[in-house]
Amino acid sequence: MRAYFSIIILSLFLFISCGTSKQFISNKIEIPTDFAGMVHAGHTKTPAEYHFIDEMGISWVLTTFYWGSIEHKEGVWDFASTDAFVDSARSYSKKIIAVLGYQTDWIYPQGGSKKYISPAHIPDFVNFVEKTVSRYKGKIDAWQIWNEPNFKMFWKGSKEDYLALTAAASAKIQQIDPQAKVLMGGFNLLGYGKYLQSLFNSNLMTSGRAASFHPYNATPLWSAGIFDNFAKRLNKNHFQGEIFVTEVGYPTGGWYPSKVGDKKLGAYIVKTLTLLAIRGVRVACWYQLFDPDPQKRNKSNSEDYFGLAFHNYTYKQGAKAYPACVKNIAGKTYIPQYQAFTNIPKSVSTFYFEGNDGTKTLILWKKSAGTKKISLPSTVKNATLFDAKTEITRPVEENEILKVTPFPFIITWK
C-alpha cells in the first residue's frame, strides 16, 4: 500500500518540509485510549501474534478486503479468509479498519485496465460492498473506500470516476451499518488537494464520515507539516469529523530516500506518534507490523523494511520505542505550555501529558544536534526514563542532570 512515487519525490522537493502550525497544538488534547493502530497486523490469527499486539499497546488493526479474493468469479462468494480475520481480531478485542478495494478480474474479460472500476461496473463494486458490509455489520469499526486514489499505482481512472465510486459505496455502507465510521480519502501527499476538495464539493464529507490521510515523509517534523496542511484544508471546508492516519512509517533499509536506518528508528517512532497525537489524530496506524525474515529480505527493496518486528516476535532495533510511547500517552491529556516545565530551554522540545489516574508523562528531545543538560522540577519524583536511543528503561535519580539529545526521553511518574 506504499505510494512509491511520493517517497521518491521527497528527495526532489524538500520544500514539503513546511513548518508546523501552532493552531493544532495550542489547546489541550485528549489522546484516545485506543489511539494506536497497526497495518497488516493480526494476519496469522494466532494467540502469539495477538499477545504481541497487546504488548505493543495496539488497539486497531487495518487490513484490506480484496474484491478479487472475495468474489473471484461473478456471484461466487468466498469469505473464509475475512471471516477468520474478523473473528480472531474481535476475540482479542481489537477494533478493525477494513479497506474495500481493488478490481476483480472477471470485470475485465479481455484483460483491460487494473486498479480501476469503470462507471459501468460501479454497481458490481457496490454489490460487493453490500454483501461484505452486511456480513460484518457491527463487527467492523471503520470502512475505508479504496487506498491512495490520488496515486496512479492504486487508481488508474479519473477523479470523476473515483468520486462516483466513492459516492455510491459510502452511501451503501451508511445505509447498511450507520454505526460504523466511513473513512474518506486514504490519500497520500501527491496532489491530494483536488481530490479532497472534490469530496467536499460533492457533499461527500458529511456526518458520520471521517477523513483519512497518509502523511509519509522523510522526517517526523515534515510528516507533521504535511499533516497540518491536510488539516488546514479540512478546516477551510468547515469539516467537523475525525481524522484517521491510516498509514505512516519509515523503512530501515532499501533505496527509498525516507529510510532512517535502525539507529534512528526509535527516535522517529516517538517523534511521529507524539506530533500526531497532539494534533488531535483520532487513530494513528503504523505501517507495518512485520518485516520478512532477515535472510529473505531484498536489500534494495524498502518495502521489506517498514516493519517494527520480525515474525518470530522479536523487535527490530529501535522498535521498543513504539510500546514505550503508545502506552504512556494513550488515554492521557496533552497540556501545552505546562508551567512546571518553563525552565527547560527552548532548544528542547517538551510534551507533557496527564492521566486521570495521576500518571504523568514528559516526552522531550533536543531540536538540533548536540547535547543540552537540564534538570527536572522538584515536583518530579520517583520517575522512570525510557531512552529511545538505547531502549533502556531506568529510574531517574534525585537531582539528576539529564543530557538531552535528538533521541527522545520518555519520562513517567505518578
Tally the beta strands: 19
Percent strand: 15-25%
- Per DSSP, the total helix count is 10
Spell the H/E element sequence. Answer: HEEHEHHEHEHEHEHEHEEEHEEEEEEEE
Mean pLDDT: 92
List unreliable stretches of 5+ residues.
5-24
Report the end-to-end length measured between terminal Cα atoms. 41 Å
Structural domain count: 2
The first-level CATH class name of the largest domain? Alpha Beta
In summary, what is this structure?
The protein has 414 residues and is of the alpha/beta class. It has helices at 4-9, 47-56, 67-70, 80-91, 122-135, 159-176, 192-201, 220-236, 262-277, 321-329; strands at residues 29-30, 36-39, 60-66, 95-101, 142-145, 181-187, 209-213, 243-248, 283-286, 290-291, 309-310, 333-334, 348-354, 360-366, 372-375, 384-387, 392-395, 401-404, 409-413.
How would you characterize this protein structure?
The chain is of the alpha/beta class and 414 residues long. It has 2 domains: 322 residues, Alpha-Beta Barrel (TIM Barrel), CATH 3.20.20; 75 residues, Golgi alpha-mannosidase II (Immunoglobulin-like, Sandwich). It has 10 helices and 19 strands. It has an 8-stranded parallel β-barrel, surrounded by 5 helices. Strands 1-12-13-14-19-16-17 form a 7-stranded antiparallel β-sheet, with helices on one face. A two-stranded parallel ribbon has the order 10-11. Helix 5 runs parallel beside helix 6 and helix 8 packs parallel to helix 9.
Helices and strands in order:
Elements: H1 4-9, E1 29-30, E2 36-39, H2 47-56, E3 60-66, H3 67-70, H4 80-91, E4 95-101, H5 122-135, E5 142-145, H6 159-176, E6 181-187, H7 192-201, E7 209-213, H8 220-236, E8 243-248, H9 262-277, E9 283-286, E10 290-291, E11 309-310, H10 321-329, E12 333-334, E13 348-354, E14 360-366, E15 372-375, E16 384-387, E17 392-395, E18 401-404, E19 409-413
Parallel strand pairs: 2-3, 2-9, 3-4, 4-5, 5-6, 6-7, 7-8, 8-9, 10-11
Antiparallel strand pairs: 1-12, 12-13, 13-14, 14-19, 15-18, 16-17, 16-19
Helix pairs in contact: 5-6, 8-9, 9-10
